[in-house]
Amino acid sequence: MGLLEGLIAYLGPWSWLVLALLLAGIEVVVPGTFFIWFGAAALVVGLLALAISLSWQVELILFVVLSAAAVLIGRRVYGRAAKEGDGLANDRLGRQVGRFAVVDRAIEDGSGHIRLDDTVWRADGPDMPVGTKVHITGHRDGRFLIEPVTGTGD
């Protein structure tokens, strides 16, 4: 009997519950959501092993199958949640759309710079002199898309 077989035989079903706790602890320390799915599979196998008598080979196969299923389900759930979000949390340019700024370096040949709060940004739009108030209408390729403000706006 090998070391792994001996340890599993000694701990019995509790080995899966210990593994589940270890994987959950790793999930807390390591960024992302990856180890929790393996921890959930280990927890299920441990609970099943406590309820019914299984050989360690069956437990191992069950763990592999449940881990794969949990990872696939987790990716689907988290993938759907990411698509349903507003998507602006990490989109610095997208959060500025709709705001007003001032041309900092003249927009010539469709390209220049604007000042938004205390930051100068690259921008594309119709030619405009320095000091023109502009409205940010969108962004593309890391540059704001702007239009001159007509009338009042703030």
Q: State the helicity in percent bands.
A: 40-55%
| Strand numbers in spatial order across the main sheet | 1-2-3-5-4
Query: How many DSSP H or I helices?
Result: 4
The low-confidence runs, each spanning 5 or more residues with pLDDT under 50, are: none
- Percent of residues in beta strands? 15-25%
* Distance, first to last CA: 77 Å
Q: How many domain modules?
A: 2
The tally of beta strands, per DSSP, is 5
Largest sheet, in brief, is: 5 strands, mixed, barrel
> What integer is the average pLDDT?
86
Quick structural overview:
The protein has 154 residues and is of the alpha+beta class.
What's the arrangement of secondary structure elements?
Layout lengths: L2 H9 L2 H16 L5 H17 L4 H29 L15 E9 L2 E6 L2 E6 L8 E8 L2 E6 L6
Parallel strand pairs: 3-5
Antiparallel strand pairs: 1-2, 1-4, 2-3, 4-5
Describe this structure in words.
α3 (35-51) crosses α4 (56-84). The protein is rod-shaped, with a radius of gyration of 28 Å. The protein has 154 residues and is an alpha+beta fold. It has helices spanning 3-11, 14-29, 35-51, 56-84, and strands spanning 100-108, 111-116, 119-124, 133-140, 143-148. The mean pLDDT is 86. Strands 1-2-3-5-4 form a five-stranded mixed β-barrel. The protein is built from four helices and five strands, in the order ααααβββββ. Helices cover 46% and strands 23% of the residues. It has two domains: 3-84, no CATH class; 94-148, OB fold (Dihydrolipoamide Acetyltransferase, E2P), CATH 2.40.50.140.
